[in-house]
């Protein structure tokens, strides 16, 4: 079918909000995205004003009516992922199958390649959404990961796929990684205790990240950032748990469960972060911290799905995660910039036994 002759692709405007709401209420859009029914209009309030430096929301207009949108967002706050954007696409049911989605995607990809100079473009789609997957493949997106029980949609648990596409103009230069001295074991003895982190731990946690041995396992940046830790610890988020490990009264590790930003469709999900200070690694502290989070998630908070990303060269962490029931879901290529190089990460997840049984029932 030819493209509608009056098709116009333009930046979203404040008066598009009611069109976007109408779009979100369409059965296919509702099923294909992570929005809940009856979304709060304020979730679009900032869209038209988003700055072209980081985000962009485009609207497809036909006969003066907004019939589709495509949005681009920075994936995370970390500077290690500054080369990444994620995208989402949605069209009114009556305007699907006419090439409008492809026109929106072409405009967004062109904007990323030629203007923003984005290296890695990523998205998540449900595995049953064949029309969307075919469209993304046409634009060079490849599947990197399959997620089970990632989001609850329309009464069930469809699998989701993560896809990525790389800017063909990028050469991905590689600098030699700077080497650093492995830390000497800390002369600490005494009892290992775990407790919830408080604001008073900010300085100790920031100091832990003042070491390249720690930073290299994460998407954090070098040089301790005390205000960032103070901010994190003074604004407890709903559903977040942050533990610290103390050995002989000294903070030597931390681990946290962090809720997903997509709210209700993923309220059963937590992301995991864990770090043990280099001088105290290899003494079972990481295992204690992670086992405690898993117990809390399984038996108290009833969290169905725990997920994390880990650099593919972080053998100790991968071993630890596997031994506590985490499984590989896929590999994200050139996911983060670390020490002069773009590095791949494995995506791993662990489903609680209770949630696994529910998923099995659902897929029967
Ligand atoms: C990953 C990390 C949290 C583990 O904490 P830790 O206290 O050193 O871990 P533990 O001592 O509890 O256990 C480490 C396990 O890895 C194993 N291990 C250590 N080095 C290994 C290697 N090179 N290859 C495979 N396994 C290795 C240990 O034998 C141990 O397994 P075991 O209990 O079956 O014997 C810690 O190394 C760390 O903080 N690293 C820097 C930050 C980081 O990478 N965080 C993870 C981000 S995803």
From TrEMBL:
Keyword Transferase in annotation = yes
Is this entry keyworded Transferase?
yes
- The broad enzyme category this protein falls into is transferase
Which Enzyme Commission number(s) are on file for it?
Answer: 2.3.1.-
Instruction: Spell out the PROSITE patterns in the cross-references.
Output: GNAT (PS51186)
User: So which domain of life are we looking at?
Assistant: Bacteria
Alphabetized InterPro entries for the sequence:
Acyl_CoA_acyltransferase (IPR016181), Bact_Acetyltransf (IPR050832), GNAT_dom (IPR000182)
Task: Report domain N-acetyltransferase positions.
Answer: 7-168, 192-344
Alphabetized UniProt keyword annotations: Acyltransferase, Transferase
Q: Which GO terms describe its molecular function?
A: acyltransferase activity
Gene3D superfamilies with a match to the protein in the record? 3.40.630.30
Return the protein name.
Answer: GNAT family N-acetyltransferase
Q: Source species, please? A: Crenobacter oryzisoli
């Amino acid at each position: 079918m030819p493209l509608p002759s009056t098709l116009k692709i333009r930046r979203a405007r404040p008066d598009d909000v009611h069109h976007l709401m109408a779009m979100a209420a369409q059965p296919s859009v509702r099923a294909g995205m992570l929005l809940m029914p009856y979304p709060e209009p304020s979730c679009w309030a900032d869209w038209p004003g988003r700055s072209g430096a980081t985000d962009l929301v485009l609207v497809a207009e036909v006969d003066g009516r907004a019939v589709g949108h495509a949005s681009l967002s920075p994936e995370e706050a970390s500077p290690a992922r500054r080369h990444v954007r994620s995208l989402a696409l949605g069209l009114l049911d009556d305007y699907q199958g006419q090439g409008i989605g492809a026109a929106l995607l072409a405009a967004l990809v062109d904007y990323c390649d030629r203007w923003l100079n984005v290296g890695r473009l990523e998205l998540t789609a449900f595995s049953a959404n064949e029309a969307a997957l075919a469209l993304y493949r046409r634009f060079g997106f490849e599947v990197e990961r399959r997620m089970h029980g990632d989001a609850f949609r329309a009464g069930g648990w469809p699998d989701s796929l993560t896809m990525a596409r790389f800017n063909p103009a990028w050469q991905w230069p590689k600098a030699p990684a700077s080497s650093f001295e492995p830390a000497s074991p800390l002369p600490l003895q005494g009892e290992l205790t775990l407790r919830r982190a408080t604001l008073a731990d900010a300085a100790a946690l920031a100091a832990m990240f003042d070491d390249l041995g720690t930073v290299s396992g994460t998407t954090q940046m070098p040089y301790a950032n005390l205000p960032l830790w103070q901010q994190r610890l003074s604004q407890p988020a709903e559903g977040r748990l942050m533990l610290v490990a103390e050995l002989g009264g000294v903070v030597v590790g931390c681990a946290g469960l962090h809720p997903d930003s997509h709210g209700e469709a993923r309220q059963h999900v937590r992301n995991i972060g864990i770090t043990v200070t280099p001088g105290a690694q290899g003494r079972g502290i990481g295992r204690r911290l992670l086992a405690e989070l898993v117990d809390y998630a399984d038996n108290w908070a009833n969290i169905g799905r725990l997920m994390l990303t880990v650099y593919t060269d972080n053998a100790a962490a991968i071993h630890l995660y596997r031994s506590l029931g985490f499984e590989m879901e896929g590999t994200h290529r050139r996911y983060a910039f670390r020490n002069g190089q773009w590095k791949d990460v494995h995506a791993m997840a662990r489903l609680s036994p209770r949630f696994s049984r529910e998923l099995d029932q659902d897929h029967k």
